[in-house]
Amino acid sequence: MTAINYESKYKPETNIWTEKYRPSTFDEVRGQKDIVNRIRTFVEQKNMPHLLFSGPAGVGKTTLSLVIARQLFTENWKNNFLELNASDERGIDIVRVKVKDFARTRAIGNVPFKIIYLDECDALTKEAQQALRRTMENYTKTCRFILSCNYSSKIIDPIQSRCAVFKFKLLPKPEIEKLITERLLGENKEFTIDSPLNEIIDALYEISNGGDMRRVMNILQACASIAENKKITANLIYSMGSVAKPEEIKDILNTAINQDFDGARRKLLNCMLENGLSGIDIIKQISKAVWDIEIDNRAKVKLMDKCGDIEFRLVEGSDEFIQLEALLAFAMMLKEK
Protein backbone atom coordinates (compact mmCIF):
# COMPACT_ATOMS: atom_id res chain seq x y z
CA MET A 1 0.00 0.00 0.00
CA THR A 2 1.52 3.30 -1.12
CA ALA A 3 1.75 6.07 1.48
CA ILE A 4 0.45 9.47 0.40
CA ASN A 5 2.29 12.58 1.46
CA TYR A 6 -0.73 14.75 2.23
CA GLU A 7 1.44 17.62 3.41
CA SER A 8 3.22 17.99 0.08
CA LYS A 9 0.08 17.30 -1.95
CA TYR A 10 -2.36 19.64 -0.28
CA LYS A 11 -0.23 22.22 1.49
CA PRO A 12 0.84 24.90 -1.02
CA GLU A 13 4.35 26.27 -0.85
CA THR A 14 4.55 29.56 1.02
CA ASN A 15 5.26 32.22 -1.58
CA ILE A 16 4.92 35.50 0.29
CA TRP A 17 7.51 37.83 -1.22
CA THR A 18 8.40 39.48 2.09
CA GLU A 19 9.65 36.05 3.21
CA LYS A 20 10.85 34.82 -0.16
CA TYR A 21 13.14 37.82 -0.64
CA ARG A 22 14.00 38.39 3.02
CA PRO A 23 17.81 38.86 3.31
CA SER A 24 19.74 36.03 4.98
CA THR A 25 23.19 37.70 5.10
CA PHE A 26 24.47 41.12 6.12
CA ASP A 27 25.40 41.98 2.53
CA GLU A 28 21.78 41.56 1.41
CA VAL A 29 20.32 43.97 4.00
CA ARG A 30 19.19 47.18 2.27
CA GLY A 31 20.00 50.57 3.76
CA GLN A 32 21.14 50.98 7.39
CA LYS A 33 24.76 50.58 6.26
CA ASP A 34 26.35 51.96 9.45
CA ILE A 35 24.14 49.83 11.68
CA VAL A 36 24.87 46.68 9.68
CA ASN A 37 28.63 47.26 9.89
CA ARG A 38 28.53 47.65 13.68
CA ILE A 39 26.34 44.59 14.16
CA ARG A 40 28.59 42.56 11.85
CA THR A 41 31.51 43.35 14.17
CA PHE A 42 29.59 42.01 17.17
CA VAL A 43 28.78 38.79 15.33
CA GLU A 44 32.35 38.26 14.15
CA GLN A 45 33.54 38.56 17.74
CA LYS A 46 30.73 36.20 18.91
CA ASN A 47 30.01 38.68 21.67
CA MET A 48 27.36 41.38 21.71
CA PRO A 49 25.43 43.48 24.23
CA HIS A 50 21.67 43.66 24.50
CA LEU A 51 20.39 45.55 21.45
CA LEU A 52 17.52 47.99 21.03
CA PHE A 53 16.31 48.58 17.45
CA SER A 54 13.95 51.53 17.00
CA GLY A 55 12.44 52.94 13.84
CA PRO A 56 9.44 52.87 11.48
CA ALA A 57 7.80 49.68 10.26
CA GLY A 58 9.25 47.83 7.29
CA VAL A 59 12.83 49.12 7.46
CA GLY A 60 14.60 45.88 8.43
CA LYS A 61 14.56 45.54 12.23
CA THR A 62 13.21 41.98 12.26
CA THR A 63 15.25 41.03 9.20
CA LEU A 64 18.51 42.15 10.79
CA SER A 65 17.67 40.23 13.97
CA LEU A 66 17.14 37.04 11.96
CA VAL A 67 20.39 37.62 10.08
CA ILE A 68 22.23 37.95 13.42
CA ALA A 69 20.80 34.61 14.58
CA ARG A 70 21.63 32.83 11.30
CA GLN A 71 25.18 34.15 11.22
CA LEU A 72 25.88 33.45 14.90
CA PHE A 73 24.36 30.00 15.29
CA THR A 74 24.38 28.73 11.64
CA GLU A 75 22.35 25.47 11.49
CA ASN A 76 21.36 25.67 15.17
CA TRP A 77 19.84 29.12 14.93
CA LYS A 78 16.23 28.01 15.42
CA ASN A 79 17.07 26.24 18.70
CA ASN A 80 18.90 29.30 20.04
CA PHE A 81 16.51 32.02 18.90
CA LEU A 82 13.14 32.89 20.44
CA GLU A 83 10.91 35.44 18.71
CA LEU A 84 8.02 37.01 20.61
CA ASN A 85 5.63 39.82 19.72
CA ALA A 86 4.81 42.11 22.60
CA SER A 87 1.64 43.32 20.88
CA ASP A 88 0.14 39.84 21.26
CA GLU A 89 1.50 39.12 24.73
CA ARG A 90 2.17 42.37 26.51
CA GLY A 91 1.68 41.57 30.19
CA ILE A 92 4.11 40.73 32.94
CA ASP A 93 3.41 36.98 32.63
CA ILE A 94 5.15 36.82 29.25
CA VAL A 95 8.37 37.96 30.93
CA ARG A 96 7.98 35.77 34.01
CA VAL A 97 7.16 32.58 32.10
CA LYS A 98 8.20 32.38 28.44
CA VAL A 99 11.20 34.68 28.55
CA LYS A 100 12.66 33.29 31.77
CA ASP A 101 12.14 29.64 30.75
CA PHE A 102 14.07 30.22 27.54
CA ALA A 103 16.73 32.49 29.02
CA ARG A 104 17.79 30.20 31.89
CA THR A 105 18.95 27.30 29.65
CA ARG A 106 22.32 27.16 27.92
CA ALA A 107 22.77 27.64 24.18
CA ILE A 108 23.47 24.78 21.76
CA GLY A 109 26.80 25.17 19.94
CA ASN A 110 29.90 27.30 20.35
CA VAL A 111 28.21 30.61 21.14
CA PRO A 112 27.78 31.00 24.92
CA PHE A 113 24.38 32.70 24.78
CA LYS A 114 20.95 32.47 23.19
CA ILE A 115 19.00 35.35 21.65
CA ILE A 116 15.49 36.50 22.54
CA TYR A 117 13.95 38.83 19.98
CA LEU A 118 11.07 40.86 21.42
CA ASP A 119 9.22 42.67 18.65
CA GLU A 120 7.10 45.78 19.23
CA CYS A 121 8.33 45.96 22.82
CA ASP A 122 7.01 49.51 23.15
CA ALA A 123 3.61 47.78 23.61
CA LEU A 124 4.78 46.18 26.88
CA THR A 125 3.19 47.54 30.01
CA LYS A 126 5.40 49.44 32.46
CA GLU A 127 5.22 46.51 34.91
CA ALA A 128 6.35 44.09 32.20
CA GLN A 129 9.23 46.39 31.27
CA GLN A 130 10.34 46.52 34.90
CA ALA A 131 10.29 42.72 35.07
CA LEU A 132 12.18 42.54 31.79
CA ARG A 133 14.89 44.81 33.19
CA ARG A 134 15.59 42.37 36.04
CA THR A 135 15.56 39.40 33.66
CA MET A 136 18.10 41.09 31.40
CA GLU A 137 20.40 41.52 34.40
CA ASN A 138 20.00 38.02 35.86
CA TYR A 139 20.48 35.98 32.67
CA THR A 140 23.22 37.93 30.89
CA LYS A 141 25.57 34.91 30.84
CA THR A 142 23.14 32.68 28.95
CA CYS A 143 21.00 35.09 26.96
CA ARG A 144 21.09 38.35 24.96
CA PHE A 145 18.02 40.39 24.14
CA ILE A 146 17.19 42.19 20.90
CA LEU A 147 14.32 44.59 21.51
CA SER A 148 12.47 46.15 18.60
CA CYS A 149 10.15 49.15 18.77
CA ASN A 150 8.78 52.01 16.72
CA TYR A 151 9.42 54.63 19.39
CA SER A 152 12.34 54.27 21.80
CA SER A 153 10.83 57.00 24.00
CA LYS A 154 8.22 54.46 25.13
CA ILE A 155 10.92 52.19 26.56
CA ILE A 156 11.84 52.92 30.19
CA ASP A 157 15.29 54.44 30.78
CA PRO A 158 16.68 51.46 32.79
CA ILE A 159 16.18 49.19 29.76
CA GLN A 160 17.63 51.71 27.32
CA SER A 161 20.74 52.09 29.50
CA ARG A 162 21.31 48.32 29.34
CA CYS A 163 21.18 48.20 25.54
CA ALA A 164 23.15 49.44 22.58
CA VAL A 165 20.53 51.58 20.82
CA PHE A 166 20.32 51.62 17.01
CA LYS A 167 17.87 53.94 15.27
CA PHE A 168 16.73 52.72 11.84
CA LYS A 169 15.70 55.10 9.08
CA LEU A 170 13.23 54.79 6.22
CA LEU A 171 14.92 53.41 3.13
CA PRO A 172 15.86 56.05 0.52
CA LYS A 173 14.41 55.90 -2.98
CA PRO A 174 17.68 54.57 -4.58
CA GLU A 175 17.51 51.51 -2.30
CA ILE A 176 13.95 50.75 -3.47
CA GLU A 177 15.09 51.11 -7.07
CA LYS A 178 18.05 48.80 -6.45
CA LEU A 179 15.83 46.15 -4.91
CA ILE A 180 13.41 46.20 -7.83
CA THR A 181 16.05 46.19 -10.57
CA GLU A 182 18.51 43.72 -9.03
CA ARG A 183 16.30 41.27 -7.13
CA LEU A 184 12.73 41.39 -8.40
CA LEU A 185 13.32 42.06 -12.10
CA GLY A 186 16.45 39.92 -12.11
CA GLU A 187 15.05 36.85 -10.34
CA ASN A 188 11.25 37.08 -10.49
CA LYS A 189 9.48 35.98 -13.67
CA GLU A 190 5.99 36.50 -12.28
CA PHE A 191 5.59 40.02 -13.67
CA THR A 192 7.01 42.64 -16.03
CA ILE A 193 6.93 46.43 -15.80
CA ASP A 194 4.75 48.22 -18.34
CA SER A 195 5.48 51.82 -17.27
CA PRO A 196 8.73 53.81 -17.24
CA LEU A 197 10.85 52.59 -14.33
CA ASN A 198 11.03 56.05 -12.73
CA GLU A 199 7.21 56.20 -12.61
CA ILE A 200 7.09 52.79 -10.93
CA ILE A 201 9.71 53.87 -8.38
CA ASP A 202 7.89 57.14 -7.66
CA ALA A 203 4.58 55.29 -7.17
CA LEU A 204 6.12 52.71 -4.83
CA TYR A 205 7.94 55.40 -2.85
CA GLU A 206 4.71 57.38 -2.48
CA ILE A 207 2.58 54.48 -1.22
CA SER A 208 5.33 53.15 1.06
CA ASN A 209 5.24 56.31 3.20
CA GLY A 210 8.77 57.16 2.14
CA GLY A 211 10.58 53.83 2.46
CA ASP A 212 8.57 51.00 4.08
CA MET A 213 10.09 48.05 2.18
CA ARG A 214 7.56 45.54 3.53
CA ARG A 215 4.72 47.56 2.04
CA VAL A 216 6.60 47.82 -1.26
CA MET A 217 6.91 44.03 -1.48
CA ASN A 218 3.29 43.39 -0.53
CA ILE A 219 1.95 45.91 -3.04
CA LEU A 220 4.12 44.50 -5.83
CA GLN A 221 2.97 40.95 -5.11
CA ALA A 222 -0.66 42.03 -5.05
CA CYS A 223 -0.20 43.86 -8.36
CA ALA A 224 1.55 40.86 -9.96
CA SER A 225 -1.30 38.56 -8.98
CA ILE A 226 -4.04 40.65 -10.65
CA ALA A 227 -2.19 42.53 -13.42
CA GLU A 228 -3.41 41.88 -16.93
CA ASN A 229 -0.78 39.82 -18.78
CA LYS A 230 1.35 40.14 -15.61
CA LYS A 231 2.27 43.71 -16.60
CA ILE A 232 2.52 46.17 -13.69
CA THR A 233 1.81 49.85 -14.31
CA ALA A 234 2.12 52.90 -12.08
CA ASN A 235 -1.67 53.35 -12.17
CA LEU A 236 -2.16 49.80 -10.87
CA ILE A 237 0.27 50.43 -8.01
CA TYR A 238 -1.59 53.57 -6.92
CA SER A 239 -4.88 51.66 -7.16
CA MET A 240 -3.65 48.72 -5.06
CA GLY A 241 -2.15 51.05 -2.48
CA SER A 242 -5.43 52.99 -2.12
CA VAL A 243 -3.48 56.18 -2.74
CA ALA A 244 -4.34 59.04 -5.07
CA LYS A 245 -1.75 60.20 -7.58
CA PRO A 246 0.17 63.26 -6.35
CA GLU A 247 -0.91 65.07 -9.53
CA GLU A 248 -4.58 64.59 -8.60
CA ILE A 249 -4.07 66.12 -5.16
CA LYS A 250 -2.13 69.08 -6.58
CA ASP A 251 -4.87 69.61 -9.18
CA ILE A 252 -7.51 69.76 -6.42
CA LEU A 253 -5.51 72.36 -4.47
CA ASN A 254 -4.70 74.45 -7.54
CA THR A 255 -8.36 74.43 -8.61
CA ALA A 256 -9.38 75.80 -5.20
CA ILE A 257 -6.58 78.40 -5.16
CA ASN A 258 -7.71 79.56 -8.62
CA GLN A 259 -11.16 80.45 -7.18
CA ASP A 260 -13.07 77.41 -8.53
CA PHE A 261 -14.54 76.05 -5.32
CA ASP A 262 -17.22 73.89 -6.96
CA GLY A 263 -14.68 72.32 -9.32
CA ALA A 264 -12.26 71.58 -6.48
CA ARG A 265 -15.08 70.09 -4.41
CA ARG A 266 -16.15 67.76 -7.24
CA LYS A 267 -12.58 66.66 -7.92
CA LEU A 268 -12.01 65.98 -4.21
CA LEU A 269 -15.14 63.85 -3.95
CA ASN A 270 -14.31 61.89 -7.11
CA CYS A 271 -10.75 61.32 -5.91
CA MET A 272 -11.91 59.96 -2.55
CA LEU A 273 -14.57 57.70 -4.08
CA GLU A 274 -12.41 56.31 -6.89
CA ASN A 275 -9.45 55.56 -4.60
CA GLY A 276 -11.40 54.55 -1.51
CA LEU A 277 -9.77 57.23 0.65
CA SER A 278 -10.91 58.35 4.08
CA GLY A 279 -10.66 61.91 5.32
CA ILE A 280 -7.46 61.11 7.23
CA ASP A 281 -5.92 59.52 4.11
CA ILE A 282 -6.64 62.52 1.92
CA ILE A 283 -5.47 65.10 4.46
CA LYS A 284 -2.11 63.31 4.76
CA GLN A 285 -1.66 63.44 1.01
CA ILE A 286 -2.72 67.08 0.89
CA SER A 287 -0.12 67.96 3.54
CA LYS A 288 2.57 66.45 1.29
CA ALA A 289 1.31 68.21 -1.85
CA VAL A 290 1.19 71.64 -0.22
CA TRP A 291 4.93 72.12 -0.72
CA ASP A 292 4.75 71.37 -4.46
CA ILE A 293 2.08 73.87 -5.48
CA GLU A 294 3.00 77.32 -6.82
CA ILE A 295 2.10 79.72 -4.02
CA ASP A 296 4.36 81.79 -1.81
CA ASN A 297 5.96 80.18 1.21
CA ARG A 298 3.90 82.14 3.72
CA ALA A 299 0.69 80.82 2.14
CA LYS A 300 2.09 77.28 2.22
CA VAL A 301 2.76 77.58 5.93
CA LYS A 302 -0.78 78.85 6.57
CA LEU A 303 -2.25 76.01 4.51
CA MET A 304 -0.12 73.48 6.36
CA ASP A 305 -1.29 74.90 9.69
CA LYS A 306 -4.89 74.53 8.50
CA CYS A 307 -4.20 70.90 7.53
CA GLY A 308 -3.12 70.26 11.12
CA ASP A 309 -6.35 71.75 12.48
CA ILE A 310 -8.48 69.70 10.06
CA GLU A 311 -6.62 66.49 10.87
CA PHE A 312 -7.20 67.03 14.60
CA ARG A 313 -10.91 67.64 14.05
CA LEU A 314 -11.21 64.49 11.93
CA VAL A 315 -9.54 62.41 14.65
CA GLU A 316 -11.99 63.90 17.17
CA GLY A 317 -14.92 62.70 15.03
CA SER A 318 -15.96 65.70 12.93
CA ASP A 319 -17.71 65.16 9.59
CA GLU A 320 -14.91 64.59 7.08
CA PHE A 321 -16.59 66.14 4.04
CA ILE A 322 -17.49 69.37 5.86
CA GLN A 323 -13.94 69.64 7.23
CA LEU A 324 -12.32 68.98 3.84
CA GLU A 325 -14.60 71.51 2.18
CA ALA A 326 -13.54 74.01 4.85
CA LEU A 327 -9.92 73.30 3.89
CA LEU A 328 -10.70 73.98 0.22
CA ALA A 329 -12.49 77.20 1.19
CA PHE A 330 -9.40 78.28 3.15
CA ALA A 331 -7.16 77.48 0.16
CA MET A 332 -9.46 79.55 -2.06
CA MET A 333 -9.18 82.57 0.24
CA LEU A 334 -5.37 82.43 0.27
CA LYS A 335 -5.17 84.15 -3.12
CA GLU A 336 -7.47 86.95 -1.99
CA LYS A 337 -5.14 87.59 0.99
Protein model, in words:
It is a single chain. This protein is of the alpha/beta class and 337 residues long. The protein has 3 domains: 13-167, Rossmann fold; 173-240, Helicase, Ruva Protein, domain 3; 246-336, Zinc Finger, Delta Prime, domain 3, CATH 1.20.272.10. The protein is 55% helix and 9% strand. The protein has helices at 6-10, 17-20, 33-44, 61-73, 92-103, 126-138, 157-161, 173-187, 197-207, 213-226, 234-240, 246-257, 261-275, 279-289, 297-315, 320-336; strands at residues 50-54, 81-85, 114-119, 143-149, 163-167, 192-193, 231-232. Strand 2, helix 5 (92-103) and strand 3 (114-119) form a beta-alpha-beta unit. Helix 3 packs parallel to helix 4 and helix 15 runs antiparallel to helix 16. The longest helix has 19 residues, at 297-315.
Give a topology summary.
Blueprint: H1 6-10, H2 17-20, H3 33-44, E1 50-54, H4 61-73, E2 81-85, H5 92-103, E3 114-119, H6 126-138, E4 143-149, H7 157-161, E5 163-167, H8 173-187, E6 192-193, H9 197-207, H10 213-226, E7 231-232, H11 234-240, H12 246-257, H13 261-275, H14 279-289, H15 297-315, H16 320-336
Parallel strand pairs: 1-4, 1-5, 2-3, 3-4, 6-7
